[in-house]
Every structure is written in structure tokens, then in C-alpha cells.
Specification:
Low-confidence stretches: none
Strand order of the largest sheet: 7-6-5-3-2-1-19-20
Bound molecules: zinc ion
Radius of gyration: 28 Å
Distance between the termini: 66 Å
Mean pLDDT: 92
Largest sheet: 8 strands, mixed
Number of strands: 25
């Protein structure tokens, strides 16, 4: 098994007849999944997703894969295969299509409907090719075959990519629920056939590789939901992912059974459920779903609200309800169900929301106190089955943080994949399949690209560091006017603080130190404003550190007259 190679440089030219696989996201993180396949000078992309920011990335809306390594090869792309409609697989598409709008998108009916709705908001009309399980399509030199997989969104597909270099199979996200609501199983017979033919490189979902055993069936949740519905005598508010059609189907079924009406709240929830319903993925009994405004006329025990915000996202409906910043006001006796996972990193935000809701008197049902969630990703037991069925010649764990990738590699090894044929790569690491053997050959740029408001890629790590300092320590500005001929101070210094916890009048103590530093500079013949600013920053920084043990941002401005 391979280890991180910080020393890797740009990969050499791909040998004739080789297949190159470059993950631009999703390896080392859960999010922004994107893999580039290259054969004979042509490129095929599988997924193009986003990663959601964490607390140490203040102000960031989304994180994209870095397109630098393919930017001057956009004409070589034969298509983007989208395995399913989750944001971590499709959310980056609008940003790639902004650079070249006519790259064809290939995906299932639901996946394409979800990405088309998203692209409409970006005013892009894509070229699409709808495929279904069993279909084969030739995209440039890539012979693609699509295979049904079960996941926490309907209509997910794996893709087998045949080239003269061999066959690569990308599972996308999958699990092996044997009793899915739509009876669309992960097509193990198809995978077995591919295994017989010979899978030269298998790229597999690692998310739950550390979790032993099997994921319980989605339909197990329905009994838990019914118990909650049976005992609730006021409103029920359910938060879930806006794409989890089967979870929401079970909520609709429970509501129907207990004589309640349902309203969808929040833009993405309303939009996605509209699409799912229209395309026949969501089965809604007549009269069950109503507009949120009609709910006011119904008694509390006939009301269900389905909203987003199960991850504690501050702008989503649920957080705003917890903060009394939403038209729906939580009252004593309401039941709130968080029918979703708790994505690592979101714990604080989610518990803050649960506490907020509890404070207003809601009874909060969540993953921690009831079985209202099952994962969408295969656990270790399922992965072992899968490897024994697929018998991959080379294995490359994808979709996971390092611990997930390693655990997944270990499972592959247990089933007999030779350790030297298991490639643990990370974002940007280039893997070449040549003569049936997969090997790391180099590394391309694959850092975070930040989306903040309308700007893409303008915000850098340095900016984020500044934001963290501003957030943690505040800022002190120092304004000084100097006479450019003599270097003497003729105005100021004026100091102002924001967020540093230091009162402006306390700065009287530091003014002599600044004057002293400037006088010395004048004596030494230092008059360049930038140098003076550095002197001021040092003097003020030392004073704040000595007296307050703090390190706020210090912003000196020297104006010459
Ligand atoms: Zn997914
Ligand atoms: Zn995913």
C-alpha cells in the first residue's frame, strides 16, 4: 500500500496505452468529489462536487476542487459523468461549466433534473445525456457502462469505464440495502459479471469503511417515525437533507397514516421535492402536501413541517426556528425530528440547534436518542462482500478522510487484493494504470478553491488567517501623519480598537512608545511609510502583548504630508 508522497512532482507524460486517474477532490475529505480519467489525450470526469466549509473557514460559502490542472484542456473533456445528485458530487458543476458551458453532463434522470435546476440558477443550460442502469455509452475513447447502486438518494449509478488500458470501475456513493423503498438494489450480479471480465482498477466509497457490520435497511426508520407520530400531540417538524427522497417518503407516509398534512419549508426542500414528485420518485397522496400558509388554519396535531437545516447550518430554517428568527415559532410541546446523519465537524452547530429548540419547549428526536437515521454508505461488512464479488486487480479507495481510505484499503487487503496493488492516493495524486498495474506517478495542484459570495478563488489561506485573527482577537488601527521632509510626526497617533476588548482611552499609555519609535526612526533617517508602519506595528503589538496577553490585528496607516 502506498503512503503520502509530499515529494511528488508533476507526473511524466502518460505512457502510450495507459489510463491516468487523477482525483481532484474527495480523497482526504468528505466532499468536493471529482476524478479525472485520461486516455489517449482525452479526459472523462466523474463527479464535480463541493465541500462545505468548517468553522475555521469563516465567511466561506463553498469549497471547490481546483480546476487548474485541466483548465487548458477543457476541449479534451468528453463528458462529466454524475453518479448521483448529492451536492458533494454535483455542486461544483456550475463553476466548471462557467469555464466551458458545452461539456456534456451524463447521469440518471433524477441526477440530471437536480443539476439542471441548479444550473438554471446560474443561467446555464447544459448539454445532457440521460442514462439508466444497464446502458452503455461511448464517450470519446471511454466505453461507459452504468450500474444501479443503492444510496441515500434515488437513481444513483456506478460507472464502469473500459479503455484499451483496461477497465476502471467507480462505485460513486453506495450501500447494499437489501430492502430499499424503491426495490432498486445495488446490482451485485452486474458487478459480479464485471469481476469475471476483470476489473483492473476499482475506486470505492470509503465513508463507512471503519464501521463494522452492515447498514440497517432504510425502511427500519419507518417504525420509529410512527412511534414518534403516535405520541406527538402538537406540531411535528422534521429536518432532513433536501435530497433524501426515501426518508421524506417515509415521513409523508407516517403523516398520512396519522391524519396530518405536510408543508415543505425552505427553497431547496420545496424545489427538490417538486422535482422528485414530478418525476415519480416521491409518491404523494392527494391533498397531503399543502402550502405552508394553509397550516395556520389547521389544528397543531394535524401539522407536519419538513425543512432543511439538520446539520445546524445557520441560515437554514431549523437554526432560525431555534433562534426565533423564523415565521414558524417553536412552542411548548412541538416535536422536532432531526432525521439525518451528523456530519463530522457539524457537532457544535447541531447541538446548539437542539438546545435552542429544547429551550423553547420542543421535544427533540435525533440520531442520539432514536433510530431516525441510517447511513447511505456501505459499512465494512458490505465492502467485504463487494470486494469478494468484484475481485479487483487494483484498488483505490475514494470518498473519505485518511482514516476512511486506510480502513477501506485494509478491507480490500483482507479479501486478497495484493497490498502492492492498493493505491492510497490523496487529492491531486496522479495514478497511472499501465500494463494492468496501478501506480502513483506524480501530483498536480489540488488545493481548496474558496467561493465567497460572488468571488471564486479570490479568497486565499492568507485572507482566512486574517479573518480568524479578526474573529479571535479583533483589530487596532493606528493613524499617523508625518512630515515627509523632516520625518516628524505632525498628526496623531490616533488609535482605535474593534473587538479587541481594549478601550480607546487606554491607548494613551502606548502613544509615547509610538512617538519614541517614530522619533528614533526620524533620527536614523527612516522615512519610508511602509517601514514606519512596521515600526508602529511592532511597538503597539509588543505593548498589547505585554499588558493584555493578546494578539489582535494591528493596522498602522502612515500618511505623508
Ligand atoms: Zn452521496
Ligand atoms: Zn458523497
Amino acid at each position: 500500500m502506498s503512503h503520502p508522497h509530499p515529494e511528488l512532482g508533476a507526473p511524466p507524460k502518460l505512457p502510450e496505452g495507459g489510463l491516468r486517474v487523477t482525483p481532484l477532490g474527495g480523497l482526504g475529505e468528505i466532499g468536493r468529489n471529482m476524478t479525472v480519467f485520461e486516455y489517449g489525450g482525452r479526459l472523462l470526469i466523474v463527479d464535480c462536487g463541493v465541500l462545505f466549509p468548517e468553522e475555521e473557514q469563516p465567511g466561506i460559502d463553498l469549497i471547490l476542487p481546483d480546476f487548474t490542472s485541466i483548465r487548458d484542456r477543457l476541449d479534451d473533456i468528453d463528458g462529466i459523468v454524475l453518479t448521483h445528485g448529492h451536492e458533494d458530487h454535483i455542486g461544483g458543476v456550475p463553476y466548471l461549466l462557467r469555464e466551458k458551458p458545452d461539456i456534456p453532463l451524463i447521469g440518471s434522470k433524477l441526477t440530471l433534473a437536480l443539476i439542471e435546476a441548479k444550473l438554471q440558477e446560474h443561467r446555464i443550460r447544459p448539454y445532457t445525456l440521460e442514462v439508466a442502469e444497464g446502458d452503455r455509452e461511448r464517450l470519446g475513447p471511454f466505453e461507459c457502462q452504468f450500474i444501479a447502486v443503492n444510496h441515500s438518494i434515488p437513481d444513483a449509478l456506478a460507472v464502469a469505464i473500459r479503455t484499451p488500458a483496461g477497465m476502471a470501475v467507480h462505485t460513486g456513493d453506495f450501500k447494499m440495502d437489501q430492502l430499499p423503498l424503491d426495490r432498486r438494489l445495488t446490482d451485485l450480479p452486474a458487478f459480479a459479471k464485471l469481476g469475471e471480465e476483470g476489473i483492473d482498477l476499482l475506486l470505492t466509497d470509503s465513508t463507512n469503511a471503519e464501521v463494522p457490520g452492515f447498514v440497517p435497511p432504510e425502511r427500519d426508520i419507518s417504525n420509529v417515525l410512527r412511534q414518534v407520530f403516535a405520541s406527538a400531540d402538537k406540531r411535528i417538524i422534521v429536518a432532513s437533507f433536501a435530497s433524501h427522497v426515501h426518508r421524506i417518503q417515509q415521513i409523508l407516509d407516517a403523516a398520512h397514516e396519522y391524519g396530518r398534512r405536510v408543508a415543505f419549508v425552505g427553497r431547496s426542500m420545496v424545489r427538490n421535492m417538486g422535482i422528485a414528485r414530478e418525476l415519480g420518485y416521491l409518491n404523494v397522496p392527494a391533498g397531503l402536501v399543502v402550502d405552508v400558509k394553509t397550516l395556520d388554519d389547521l389544528p397543531d396535531d394535524e401539522v407536519v413541517l419538513v425543512c432543511t437545516g439538520s446539520q445546524g447550518e445557520p441560515m437554514a430554517a431549523l437554526s432560525r426556528m431555534a433562534n426565533r428568527d423564523h415565521q414558524i415559532r417553536i412552542v411548548q410541546g412541538d416535536t422536532v425530528i432531526l432525521a439525518s446523519s451528523l456530519i463530522p465537524g457539524n457537532e457544535n452547530a447541531v447541538y446548539r440547534v437542539i438546545n435552542g429548540l429544547s429551550r423553547w419547549g420542543a421535544n427533540v428526536v435525533h440520531k442520539g436518542n432514536a433510530k431516525v437515521h441510517v447511513s447511505g454508505h456501505a459499512s465494512a461488512g458490505e465492502l467485504l462482500y463487494f470486494y469478494n464479488i468484484c475481485k479487483p486487480r487494483n484498488l483505490m479507495p475514494v470518498h473519505g478522510e485518511w482514516r476512511h481510505l486506510r480502513a477501506n484499503a485494509e478491507l480490500g487487503a483482507l479479501t486478497g487484493v495484493p497490498k502492492d496493488r492498493i493505491v492510497i492516493a490523496e487529492d491531486g495524486v496522479v495514478v497511472d494504470l499501465v500494463d494492468g498495474i496501478a501506480k502513483i506517478s506524480g501530483k498536480v495542484q489540488a488545493g481548496y478553491v474558496y467561493v465567497d459570495g460572488l468571488s471564486v478563488g479570490d479568497v486565499t489561506e492568507t485572507h482566512l488567517k486574517d479573518r480568524r485573527i479578526l474573529g479571535d482577537e479583533g483589530i487596532i488601527s493606528v493613524f499617523v501623519v508625518v512630515d515627509s521632509s523632516t520625518g516628524k510626526t505632525v498628526g496623531g497617533p490616533n488609535l482605535h480598537a474593534r473587538g479587541s476588548g481594549i478601550d480607546d482611552k487606554d491607548f494613551d499609555a502606548v502613544v509615547p512608545k509610538i512617538d519614541e519609535a517614530l522619533a528614533k526612526a526620524a533620527q536614523d533617517g527612516v522615512a519610508e511609510p511602509h517601514q514606519l508602519q512596521q515600526l508602529i506595528r511592532r511597538a503597539v503589538g509588543k505593548w498589547v502583548s505585554d499588558n493584555y496577553r493578546r494578539r489582535p490585528m494591528i493596522l498602522p496607516v502612515v500618511v505623508e504630508v
